[in-house]
Each structure stands twice: as structure tokens, then as C-alpha cells.
Amino acid sequence: MPDPQRTEPITEAAAPAPGASRYFVRFTREQRYMHAVLFTTFLGLAATGLPMRFSESFWARKFAAGVGGFGAILFFHKLCAVVLSIAFLIHVKEVFQRGLLRREKGIFWGPTSMVGNWKDVKDLLGHMRWFLGLGAKPQFERYAYWEKFDYWAVFWGMIVIGFSGYAMWFAPFFAHFLPGWALNAVLVIHSDEGLLAILFIFSIHFVNTHLRPDTFPMDMVIFTGVESEEEFQHKRPLEYQRMMKEGKTESRLGIAPPLWLLNFSKVVGTIAVFIGLTLLVLTLTAYFH
Amino acid sequence: MPDPQRTEPITEAAAPAPGASRYFVRFTREQRYMHAVLFTTFLGLAATGLPMRFSESFWARKFAAGVGGFGAILFFHKLCAVVLSIAFLIHVKEVFQRGLLRREKGIFWGPTSMVGNWKDVKDLLGHMRWFLGLGAKPQFERYAYWEKFDYWAVFWGMIVIGFSGYAMWFAPFFAHFLPGWALNAVLVIHSDEGLLAILFIFSIHFVNTHLRPDTFPMDMVIFTGVESEEEFQHKRPLEYQRMMKEGKTESRLGIAPPLWLLNFSKVVGTIAVFIGLTLLVLTLTAYFH
Amino acid sequence: MARLFATRPFVIRRFAARAFAPRQFAARRLVPFALVLLFLAWTSNAHAAQKPVDADCLACHGDATMTDGASHSIAVDGQKFSQSTHGSLECTSCHADIKTYPHPDKIAPVDCKTCHADQASSVSGSVHASASDHPCTSCHGVAHYIFPKDDPRSNVYPLNVPKTCGTCHGSPDLAKKHGLPNVYPLYMDSIHGFALSKEGLLVAANCQSCHGSHNILSRTNPQSMTYKSNIPKTCGTCHAKIEADYEQGVHGKAVAGGNLNAPVCSDCHTAHAILQPTESAFRMQSTPICGNCHKDKFSTYRDTFHSQLGSLGGYVETARCWDCHGAHDVRPASDPASPVNKANLVATCGRCHAGANLSFVQYQPHANARDRKLSPGLYYVRLFMNLLLASTLTFFLIHTILWLIRSRYSQVKNKSANGGKNA
Amino acid sequence: MARLFATRPFVIRRFAARAFAPRQFAARRLVPFALVLLFLAWTSNAHAAQKPVDADCLACHGDATMTDGASHSIAVDGQKFSQSTHGSLECTSCHADIKTYPHPDKIAPVDCKTCHADQASSVSGSVHASASDHPCTSCHGVAHYIFPKDDPRSNVYPLNVPKTCGTCHGSPDLAKKHGLPNVYPLYMDSIHGFALSKEGLLVAANCQSCHGSHNILSRTNPQSMTYKSNIPKTCGTCHAKIEADYEQGVHGKAVAGGNLNAPVCSDCHTAHAILQPTESAFRMQSTPICGNCHKDKFSTYRDTFHSQLGSLGGYVETARCWDCHGAHDVRPASDPASPVNKANLVATCGRCHAGANLSFVQYQPHANARDRKLSPGLYYVRLFMNLLLASTLTFFLIHTILWLIRSRYSQVKNKSANGGKNA
């Protein structure tokens, strides 16, 4: 169904218009795609996991009846789990290759690493002081402490939820290695960690990265990959200074996000936030019912 | 799960290396996304529709049992149908807006239109003559006749399959407007036209556009959007000449497809072709059983 | 009609009175004919001349419009009567006080007891003892047209019994008045009621299969078929193997030992609204019933995936109580015959879990994550997970709220100087 | 044991012979004691002195190790015998030829017919007529321990009947020998067999509910309970309402009218492997059964979405034959009581299709797209679609194949000069 030819100029190849701000790349395409796979499968896992966890609520039964019974829910949950597992393994393989085999710098240590360091502790305390009006706002590096927390929470969650999930799926096999009580524990672990992930992502992560006044209604950077120079300077002053000092400006230059990408991101992001908030409300009602 | 920062240059902004061939845009991003939505939902519809059509075959029953029963199949079929319907309506709206409201040229008539014309007939006959060694290969414009056929086959199929599908889904409602025998006819229409679409796409379309020697194993242009100058010139000589003559070369210039996009396209394309061929084999075995 | 027979004498209008009733004109015309018949009967059967024969009675009562002083019909359809179970009797067999013709104005009510002494004595000791409220005809139907109980026309033909009992017991008012549950609709929707009324299965349990017929006693009466400790035997009339199984189980032994808190059939299956046990609705309804007594086991069961998936509704195959413990012969796990005895666990779990092995059955289907002594590992895992969940969420909730407030404050103060539209 | 009683005389070893058999030492020691008993019996009961009493018999036969000349046990458990249905009789009631003690070597086989003349005459007219192959004891069990049929110890207690019949009829060899189907496993998995053996439901149909007991006849015999035209009545013994419904329907009327091609109960439900009709397996299996006769209707049904979805297996609710036409009282569409009568279609379709209206029920569930006269619109639609499908595919198949050949030819000729890797 190819569309009749468009005559507009191709946005991708367009040079930045004179006077417009420069854009810098914060997330590579791989990172953005990984985030897309992650949030898509996460929404799928949450949407199928919650009805199983809160199966006595009326909406869980409605949902099960609507999609063709518990078998369909379980099938879809496992399907999403497998896709997410593959994405996770690809990510781990890549970090391992780049960090250990190719010995790229900045993967495990330094300002560009996801690994926590002393500055993160100071940033956290400084941020809290700023919240209370007791100090200036800390200057964040490439990854702020809450972003590192997001990353490691998901990393840890993936291992924990994944392992416990597969242990339930293939219980007779896992029983060869695990003690009896562990077969009981995996459900507790899977459902509590899953609940934590759902509550955290659909409340804290949504608010921190998308819904707080600075970014409202949505921080597009994970969708577009780029940030304007002003924004970059304002949000990550240390990284901006470091980049300038190291003369890496050129290599980080990106293009302004094309309109289609902004629109597309808005639609996808809004749908994801909407589904997430719906699931959050359902979870909280079921939990406190 | 953002990845540690990459230090490679950003491919999108890169100017073509000197000496490398120029790339020209053949499909806009909207067109490529429309194709992606189309083939994803089409695979979903085929994978759920075929088990219903050939429900007495052993694989249909296995499939139904695997995904949690017939309810899940029907649910997923309707879900894909709704997504595809929305995409179709968006496309129709756009063609209508650009062709009738904004009066863009080349939408309905002329060498860039999808609408068939006298040249297509001549091209078809000339192509056939060439097949038999009786003449030279015709020179194709922007859209060759078999591409126009693909487009209109899908367009017509969408209306026919969509209408007959919704008529079955909401039969008591449609019964207000349709005669009694039409309620019988919609199944015949839906299943024959669906079968035609499946057989056509998974054999003719796959071979014509992807598996024939000129393009084997896959024509990437619908995924990357761009074609190298040599390829463009070879495949669409008339369009190339027109473009040169009209001096529109600049506006059609694209960037070389980045490696990630080529790899991504290969993976997605291979999966789609693999699923399609599997469904084709299952269909043929069930049909001739 | 029923009240008429059992509680008040017939008051037949005299001929003189009848002569003024235009509606009874037809009967009046029959009088000469009846007299002729009477004469013939007298001449041919001289020694019984004083006692009227059926033909004499029908000469008047055969008129379908005939009524008594209170306008109640006293007509008898001789044809239908002759087909009934009493058809071979003469009118005077029951109306024994009628010796002459014409008979007196007031005649005695027919007493069924004369012939049916056993049944009458049973009824008089039953909940239906009051003869004025429960004449025989209230169940057996119109007095002159009583059919044997294997005749589909009989009110006590198995397929008609629920409707007959339902005449009174299907009324919510009567149920209310006597403090009884309104069981008729429950029964009709049950597996017994369905088999009987929809499929017309003669052997399906009807009201009297469980309650008896003439000797129905209150369920509080230890002699009653529905007295709690008698229920297994009552159900066992048909469900023999289940009764035998039940008696081998802990519940059966407890009830036999006089512990009336232990469940009998009706506690799990309900008394009237009994469902097919393979039905989704029964599987959904019965686990909580076990939980009424086994509260701790039910609460720990609800923590498991068995329960979580099972509560989704529809037909979900995950294990319910009886899938593991057995349904009727529930035995302690120490009993080698119990499916949850250690020696049987691999087989029991293996019924659903292909590949179940000795380590797999170490799984505790009733582990209590809140009990540190019984399940220490699980207890600490749960504690850790809950603390992790609570502390993470609490910390970040406070963090986020403070951030929100401070950001908004900064934003308002700086008049949105920083942060672009898509920041 | 069974063969022993009915086909050969007892051959008891003489005392002298027994004296040499060491295994019968215990019996030998009882001899003096028995003589004392005999004397006591003689003194107290002088006029019957010659006829031995039970105690006399048990004096020898009470020894559990006693055997006859062919080493068959001829011991009798007096305790168990006294509980049996014949326990109140004396040994000599049946072994009537024993008048003296000790009794002769050869005694006559017991003839049950002496008392049970009716049953014996029934059996002699049945398929089990051959007394040597089918002695009474083959069904009723060991001769001295026969219990009444409502006693769970009886071989003909309802719950034991299938096992009893299965002793012979559960063997594939016997089935083969007589050209009978091996029905025992089919019955055991059926709804009747399941109710009987798994649930122990006494009222569930067992073998003799349908085949009779003493008077079993071949199904080719018009007097047989299982003769085709008698089957509805046989099933109706329990399924009364269904029989009544069936008799109102076209199938019942045809069979009653002597058309033995019309189906009876067992044609749709099978004879032994009867399934619960709400079960998925029955819904899958039965539509083709209707199709055996109604070939055209079945073929057109299979063209519909009802059939397509329904064939997916599992529990699929789409309409099968009887969902629309009724199951037992199938009537012609012209009959106002038929659910497919025009006046009832909105209600019938509306049971599944919420919002069904008069135009909706114009849908033809058996439209034949191949029949131009009956369904012209549909015929031409199908014709057009098929032509479209065939012509499009044929054209493009040829087009593609030619293209492939020509492309490859060009490619080889030009040595891949044109077209890049990702062309």
C-alpha cells in the first residue's frame, strides 16, 4: 500500500536551519529500540500478570472472558516473557562484549557508566536538600542517580522475575536444583517483585521522567534520542561541560527530531501512559479491596 | 534500560562519503510504517484466520489448544482487524486530503499516481514479450504495473474482506440493510478473498518483490526507503530521467541505509517471509487434503 | 375439590330446589331415565336393591355442571374415574354411608384411612399431620382421578412430584410463613432437577427420594431422612459407592462418631441446588465451602498459584481441595490410602504436572509465608520482598512528591524560564 | 466351582480313600465328633433321623481344605452360607437326592430350576441358553454364597453387574469368537459406566437395565429389549420424557411406522460409549452422525461459520444440528412446534445471537452455494469469487514463473552486471 509520492524535502537529511538550536544525542537508536521492546512487553506482562495476581477481582474475570479464557492470558504472558528475555540477553551480551572483550571505556566506571558511584550518593542527598530549600540543585552527569536506579531496578527485576517465572513454568525441571520451599518462594518472589515493578514504573517512573512539571506531559528524549542544547545544558550541566572540554561536541551532534517522530512518540507514549495508569488504578483498587 | 553511551558518530547526520553512490528516496517514512502495520496485522489475521477456515486440519486444532482455545483466536483476529481498519482509514483520509482538499498533483493522475493508465497496459504486454524473448524490457515509471496491482488488490481486498468481516461480527446489525442471502455470502466472500490475499501475498508478492533473482533474497527498499542511484536508474529508468529533467534530484536525495536498519530489516523481513511461507504450506496442504 | 372431600359433607340440593336452577336443566331431564335404571337394577339384582350402584350415582353426578349448595362442582367423569386406580371400586366402597338412593343431604367425608391405614398413620406422625391443611388429595390429586404412581397422569409420578410438592413449596409466601427456604427453584436448577424436569430421567432424585413420602419429618428430628447424621444414608440410596467412600473418610467417621460439626453430603453439595461437580460453577463455589471449616488451609491455599489462576472463572483446571485430598474419602495425610500421603504425592501431583518427581513434590501447597517456624525460608523471602516493596515505594513516593512540589515552586518562581516544551 | 455344580456330579472320596490323604487330616479327626452330632440329631428328631441336617454336612464340608476326586474344593463356609440368600434353607433342600449319611459317591447336580422355574425358563429361551456354558452360578456367583441383588456382596448388585458380565464380555477373545464388539471398555468409559463405577450411582444403567437379566435376546430378535424398534422404550425406562419427546418427532414416528432406517437413541448416542451430551467430545462426534443420513444438510452445514469454528475442538459453542433442530423431538420446519419453524426462528437464533431480528433470521444455515436455483445470489457470488481467485492466481503464477526464468536467464547472461546486493 505505498502512498503516492510526497514532494516535501526529506527531513532526515536536512541540515539544521540557521538560528535554530543544536541538538545532541542522548540515546542511541539501539537504546531507544531496547526501551520500546521493554515497555511494550512490560505492558503486555503487566496486563496479563495482574489479572492472574488479582484473579478474584471482577475486572480480572471480565478480562479473562474477553480474551478467550485463562489459557490465552497465560499464553500471552509467556510469549511476552520470552521476547523480553531475548532482549535482555542481547543487552547483557552487548554490555559484556563492549565492556570486557572490546574494553570500551566508560562502560563500568566513570561519569558515563550506569554503575553507581560516590557522586550519586552526594547527588541524592543534595537533591533532597534542594527539595527542602536547603541547598542548590545538584549538577547531574550523563545518568542521574534516579536513572541509574531505574536501570538497576529493571536489571535486577528482570533476573529475579525472570528466574522465578521460569521456575514456575518449568517447575518439575527446576525442582532438580531447588529445595522444596523454593518452589513456594518463587511465586511470592515473582508476584511481589512484579507488583513492585508495576507500581514503581506506573507511578514513580512515569512521574519522575514524564509527568513532573519540568518534563510534563512527557520526556521525549527516549523516543527521539536527542535533546536541544539548552535543555541538555540545563539538565546535565556536568556532562555538557565535560563534552565541551573534551571537544566531543561534533560527534554528539544530532538532528532536530522530525515532526513525524514527535507525533509518533506522543501517540505511543500517551497510549503507554494511559494503559499503565489504568493498570495502576486497577491494581490499587484490587489491592485495597 | 539505557545503554552506556556510544562513541561512534551518529549515522543519521552523516554526509555521504565521497565516492560512494548517492541514495534516492522511494518510500517515505509514512509509507514504510504503513507497510509495517499492514504486514504485521496481515500476518496476524492470516495466522488466526487460517485455523478458522481449515479448522478440521490437525494443525488448526493444535494451534487453538496452544493459544488457549477458539476464543483467543477470534479475539486476536478481531484485534488485528481493528488495527488494520484504523490504518486503512488513516490512509484513505490522507489520500483524500492530499488529492482533493490540498489538490496536490500526481495523486490521481500522471506518472507518480497509483491509478492505472494506458502505459501500464503497454508495460504489461511489453514485459510479457520480454519474458518470451520477443522484445526489450519495458522501462518502468515510479510504480510498475505489478506494484499498482499489489496496491489495488490490497485496497479492494481491504474493503471487501473488511466489510464482509464486520458484517459477520455485527450480523444482527448488518441484517437491517442486507438481504438474507447476503449474510450467507459474506462468509464466502470473506474466506475466498482472504484465501486469495494469503495465497497471492505469500506466493506472488513474495516472489515478485523479494525472491526473484533480481532482488533475492529480499528487496529492502520498503524497509529502508532508499535505493542507490544505479539501482534506481536500472529499475525505474523513466522516473530517473523525469527526476533529472525536472531538477528534483536534490529533494529526492536520501542517506545510505544505516547498517542497523539493514540488519533490522533483514531480521523482520526474514521472519515475515518465514511465517508467510509456513502459512502458505499449511494452507495448501489443508486445501488439497 | 380437595378441601371439599376432606373437610365438609356434601350438601346436595334437593330435587325441588334443583327444579328452579336453569343451569341444571340437563340433570333434571335425566331423572326419569335414572329412575328407569334404578328399576332395572332392582329387578335384576334384587338382594342389593337398597344400595345404589355406580350407574345410579353417575345418573346425577355424571352431569359436568352439577354443583353443591356452595357452588362447588360435585360432578364426576365416570369414564376417567373408571381408568383411575380406584376405577374397579364402586362409589359406595368409599362413600360407605350412602345406603339408599336418593341419599341424605349430608354425607360423611370419605376417609382414605379405611383402606390406607399405614399411609394415614405415617402422615399423622409427619410434618403434614394436620389433615385439614394436608388432605391426601393435596398430593394425590383430585379424589376420583387418582392414578398409580408409575402412571404419567399421577400427581406422584416421579416426573410430576416436584410440581406437586411445588404447589405449596414453590410459593415464597409459604416458605416465609414456615421459616423454610424457598427451595423449589433451587431444586429445579440442580443436577437432580435438571435431569428430572429437562431430561425426564425417572431415576433422578425427586423430592420424596430424599424426604420420604407419607412420613416426612423435620430435619431436626433424629428419625428424619434429612436429619444431619442420616443424610449420607439417604444420599447413599442412590450414590452407594460415594456413601461407602464417605464412611471411610475422616468426615464420615466423625459424623458416625456423633460429631455433627463434620460435614455431610449437603454441606459441600448444598441440599437442593446441587451442581454437577465437574461444572465450572461447582469448582468455583466449593473450595470456599471447605474453607468454612479449614480456615487456615483455605487461607494458605489462596496464596498459591493454584488458587490465583483458579479464581479467574470459566473452566480453570488448577487443583481445588478435592483434586488433591480426594472428594469423599478424605483421609489424614498419614493414611497410606490418602492421595496426599508422602508415598502417593508423585502420582497425585503427576496427574496434572507431567514430570513431577520427588523433589517437585517437596512443594508445599499450604505453605504459610506468615509462619516463621513452619516455613522459615519462605517467611524470610516474603519478609524481604515486602520490605523491599514497601521501602522502595515509600522512599520514592516521598522523593517524588517533594520533587514535584519543589519543581513546581521553581517553575512558578522562574516563570517557566527553564525547560522547553519537550524537555 | 460354577462348572462343578452344574455339569458334573460330586465325586466324594470314600472315608477309606480319604484316610490316605494327609492333607485331609483335620477332616478325618472330625469324624468321631460328627458321629456324636448325628446321634444327637437322631435322638432329638427321631422321625427325620435318616435325613442329615446341615451340621452333619458341615462336619465334613466345613473343612476348608476338602476336595473331590478331581481336586476341586468341595468345602463350604457354613458361616458365610448362613448369611446368604439361601442361608435359611438346609443343604438337603437343594441336594435333595441325599437322603442318608454318609451319602453316595455320586450325587446329582443341584438344579436351580426346582425353585426358580420362571428364571430358568427365561434363560433357556435367551442367548445364554446353553446351560453348560452359562450355569446360573456364572452370573450369581459361588453357589453357596449367593446374596440378594440389593446386597453389595452379590454379583448381581447393580454396582457389580458390569464386572460380572465383563468376566466374559470384557474379553476381546470372546467378543471375537462370537463376532460381538468388545463393549465392556466402551461402557465403562460412558456416562452410565462412569456414574456406576466411579460414582457408584445405584440407579445408573448397568448391563441388565438395557439387556434384561435372564431373558437376554439377540438384538436381531424383535422381542429383544435391544431390537432397534424397542430401543426407545428400553431407554425410556429411565429417560421417560426424552422417550415421549422422541415419539413426537419425525424419527420416532418413522420408527413407530416401521421404518427401521430412521435413527433410534443408540444411533446418535451410540449403544455403549454414551457420552454426556454437553461434553465437547459429544458435540464434536455427533454432527457427522446426523450427516450419515442427512448428507446434503451436513455438507451445506460444513460450509458455514458454525461448522468452521465448531470444528476447532475444545468446547466451542457454535450451533450443531440439535441446537437449532432440537435433539429428540426433531420436527419438520413446517410444524409450528419446531424451533426452526419461521415463527420461532428469532427466538431460536436469539438464544446465541443477541439482537437477532426478522432480517437476521433470513440467513440460510444450509444455503448451498453450488445450487443456482435455490440460492442464486450466493451461487453467483461464489462463482465470481472462485473465478477471481483462480484467474488472478493463474495469471500471476504464469507471469511470475516466466519472470523468474527470464530474470535468471538475463542474470546469467549479464553475469550479474545489474542489481546490487540489496536491489
Describe the structure.
The complex is a heterotetramer, with 2 copies of chain A (289 residues) and 2 copies of chain C (423 residues). Chain A has a domain of 188 residues. The longest helix of chain A has 32 residues. Helix content of chain A is 68%, strand content 3%. With 289 residues, chain A is an all-alpha fold. Chain A has 12 helices and 3 strands. Among the domains of chain C are: 111 residues, no CATH class; 104 residues, no CATH class; 43 residues. The N and C termini of chain C lie far apart (91 Å). Chains A and C meet through α1, α2, α3, α4 and α5 of A and α20 and α23 of C.
Tertiary shape of chain C: elongated
- How helix-rich are the residues of chain A, as a percent range? 55-70%
Class computed from helices, strands and strand pairing of chain A? mainly alpha
Strand-pairing-aware structural class of chain C: mainly alpha
Largest sheet of chain C: 2 strands, antiparallel
H/E order of the elements of chain A? EHHHHHHHHEHHHEH
**What Rg of chain A, in angstroms, do the CA atoms define?**
22 Å
The total strand number of chain C stands at 2
Q: What is the alpha-carbon Rg of chain C in Å? A: 36 Å
Strand content of chain A: under 5%
